[in-house]
Amino acid sequence: QILYLKPPWTLANLLKCYKKHWMAVFGYVVPRSLLSTVEYLSEHLCTGKPIDDSTVRILLEESKKLLHAFSSRSDYNGVLPQAYAEVNKLHQTLTEVRGALGFQDLSEDIMVLSENAACEKMEAMTPSLQNSEEKKLHPSFHVAQENRHQEIWSVLEGVWNTINLYSIEIFQKLDPNAMTGTAKSSFEEAFLGLQKLLAAVNDIREGISR
């Protein structure tokens, strides 16, 4: 009903819509960390940059990851499984060709893992990597890590701002001498908001523990 760009869409338009509505819409349907996948696809498919076979391999893997995430919501009248099958077919063909030519794919162990396993693997690998080994990794590894760090920082900053806001409102409600010149949300809304926030903080703590 409300769209950044109206259909019919090109691939570039579709990816722009993903990025524009990610926090408000798509981030509630699929894991929000997949925004880095959308940005990677947009950067390499819609900017006219030349891409090599290693980049094509990663693009196919990221596309499969995105399609798989949306499959948990719907099969979209059979379109999604068909698209996934075609992308998977291309991925297998490229893998066979690369194998026949003797290419070594350094990104395979990282990119084909599930989202959580990939994060855990990267976190486990990073401290032990020497400078010479880091240079061998695909640039997308470092891009994914940087995006992950920015996402974590954004979440923690949002948690802090929300705690600060609700705490001020609650103390103002409890203090009869507090004078406020603007309309505030109800005590119940603030309390319920903190309950939701508590669950989010617990999720973050578990993630850090992993």
Automatic annotation (TrEMBL):
Question: Got a GO cellular component term for this one?
Answer: nucleus
Highest rank taxon of the organism: Eukaryota
InterPro entries in the record? SWT1_Regulator
Q: Report what the protein is called.
A: SWT1 protein
Organism field: Nyctibius bracteatus
